[in-house]
Amino acid sequence: MSHTTALRAVARGVCLSLLVSALSPALAQFRRDAPAVSPRIPANAGLSTELSLAGKPTTADYIIAVVNNELVTYTDVDKRVARLQATVQRGQQLPPADELRRQVLDALIDEKAQLAHAKTLGIDVGDAEIDATIESIAMQNQMTRAELKRRMEADGLDFQRYRTSLREQILLQRVREREVGARIRISDDEVTAFLQSEPASQAETALNLAHILIAVPEGATPEQVRTLQAKAQGLRDRAAQGANFSELAKTQSDDRGTREQGGSFGLREASRLPELFVQAAQNLQVGQVAPLVRSNAGFHVIKLVARENTAQATYTEQRARHILLRSSPQQPAGDLVKRLADIRRQITSGQGSFPQMARQYSEDGSAARGGDLGWAPPGMFVPEFERALNALQPGQISEPVVSRFGVHLIQLIERREVQLTDAQKREAARNVLRERKFESTYEEWAREIRAAAWIEMRDAP
């Protein structure tokens, strides 16, 4: 990918504030119907749950472009640019201001054209899904839905406009996954050729690492460095002793790029991770925390969440149980969170076991089995559930987790390494090939959708 293309991808990847991360297509219950492609659409990675409303308008607004019947305004561009500037990582360099605004405008025009296309296909996002997503965002920011609404209004964001923006972002991801995924075809011959001709690619270890960054500012004094190192070491010791790594990362990490995901980078080939991190995780078992690591950015607390090595043909499975309370207009998610928090207190204080509570309260089909979900490979659960599960040590119980299906209380029972079957090896190879084709296929599709749209550019008044 060229430098210019990469910059365009970054600009396209920054979405409106307060949007939920890692949104996924329709799912059966809380499990995926089948392993899904991880789309390399940069916009997906920019969805944020941070309560920062950068880009609040300070000048008179006006229309910059009309795309079919959708409007792009000066404020739309302003907010997206401000969001991008606020989230740029150390070492990244943004283009000059004029070029950045042009790239952001291009990205917004693409989005409006794709939204119009989604509507012509009849793709929709229901109010119940939006409500569940908002509840999840509120929980991640440790506040109620009402508090979230008041916070947004105090920062100048209309709540209904926010709901509309959230719906649009979900629609964008949904239409991209549906349309782009349908264009990618991987033949059996391609899979066989990949397995025979690319042993190096197959043998590469994939790691899911999570980290907490305690940043050391440039020009820090030795005393400041010692203080920050002591803070990082304290967090490392807490994580190694079983503290919830995800929560520590959300509240303590200085890396805004991974903080919202509990510090997790997601499952990536080792070659796509910082070499320093890969070396730190080299001798770790899944779930262990590495000794403190120092980089130019600061001190890192690193945890190995999962490891897959196709050379050894194994992957990490997790066995969990849960209690599910389904939300409804009569039973809003906020009330269910309180109920499950109380159930959690009863379990942790010894007033009842998790299986007993699951049989008594859970509204899921697994209730009769004490909430036991059996063994599951990576990607089987919806993102909110999977993130919470990955952050647990065996025996630990999560805080209440909101998903589109209700509110969950999750306990990790155990993890294990499992041998891949030949069919799974072929499916893994197919997914690698599909991912390789996704970005170029998406770019081609986006150009076609834009070319078919009616676009009118307008001058500033």
What distinguishing features does this structure have?
rotamase, 4-stranded antiparallel β-sheet, alpha+beta, signal, about 45% helix, Chitinase A, domain 3, Triger factor/SurA peptide-binding fold, EC 5.2.1.8, about 450 residues, disordered N terminus
Describe the structure.
The chain has 461 residues and is of the alpha+beta class. The protein has 3 domains: 3-186 and 438-457, Triger factor/SurA peptide-binding fold; 205-309, Roll (Chitinase A, domain 3), CATH 3.10.50; 315-419, Chitinase A, domain 3. It is built from 17 helices and 11 strands. It has helices at 3-13, 42-45, 74-87, 97-120, 127-140, 145-154, 159-183, 188-197, 199-203, 222-240, 245-252, 256-259, 275-281, 333-348, 354-361, 383-390, 422-452; strands spanning 63-67, 70-73, 205-215, 264-269, 293-294, 298-309, 314-325, 372-376, 401-403, 406-419, 455-457. The strands form 3 sheets. A 4-stranded antiparallel sheet has the order 4-3-6-5, sandwiched between helices. Strands 8-7-10-9 form a 4-stranded antiparallel sheet. The longest helix is centred in the C-terminal third of the chain and has 31 residues, at 422-452. This is Chaperone SurA. Residues 1-28 form the signal peptide. One of its GO terms (cellular component) is outer membrane-bounded periplasmic space. Residues 204-306, 315-414 form the PpiC domain.
